[in-house]
Amino acid sequence: MPPAGFANAQPGGADFPDSFLCETIGESTTVDLDPFPRDSSGAPVTSGSNSDRLRAVGTIVDELDEPPRGQVEHRVDQERIARAVREILLAIGENPDREGLRETPARVARMYGELFGGLHEDPRRHVQKFFTETCDEVVLVRDISFNSMCEHHLLPFMGKAHVAYLPRERVVGLSKLARVVESVARRPQVQERMTEQIADILVEELKAKGVAVVIEAVHTCMTIRGVRKPGSICVTSAMKGCFRNKSSTRAELMTLIYGDRR
Questions:
Q1: Is position 74 annotated as part of the catalytic site?
Q2: Would you say residue 12 has pLDDT above 70?
Q3: Which of 4, 17, 141, 242 has the fewest CB within 10 Å, making it most exposed?
Q4: Is-catalytic flag, 219?
Q5: Domain coverage including residue 161
Q6: Rounded to two decimals, what is the model's pTM?
């Protein structure tokens, strides 16, 4: 479909601009609306119908709406999830057709699409753009909040991650560390694997002297069911490079994270 307001525009006419500014994937992009060639005087070659030209323009705009290659977001099968949730409601003895539950299967399906959105993206993409800087001190982003889903019971666990690295040459924007945590968290997980995955990604992409990840989380699979111990917190860590090999560097990190709280 052509951009709004262009339906009656003529190629090369004043009412058909050569380009327009389009917001796509968080960046301003100038979109060329003149895919047809021009002659030696610069006038557009208007062979073919105006509808052909508009269809070509629509194709350009549609392509800009797609994620970059390798970042195509796969959607979960929400219809299938909704059918499954309806069956669960029937299995527990509920009436999925009563007013309060009528739209619940669709709501749960949309929720799962959000909670498991990280399954179909590569968290490495967030740290593949870096800057070359001289830095010989610990870089730490502390208290990164996250929510994930325990793969054993499909119940949430939530908490905060502390992510640190000692750069060799590569430095990334601080928000990118939080985005890696978010991407790795939004999938069926166990905390131990999540901690290692974040650390391994940073080691591989940043080539840092050392990487450390500490995660603290509350697991509802043990606070609202089973042993039912509210207030319990699981702490996991992954130490790579100098954080593993040098006790002084590791101690400095722990002081930066916890201070007097230990």
A1: no
A2: no
A3: 4
A4: yes
A5: 6-67+123-261
A6: 0.71
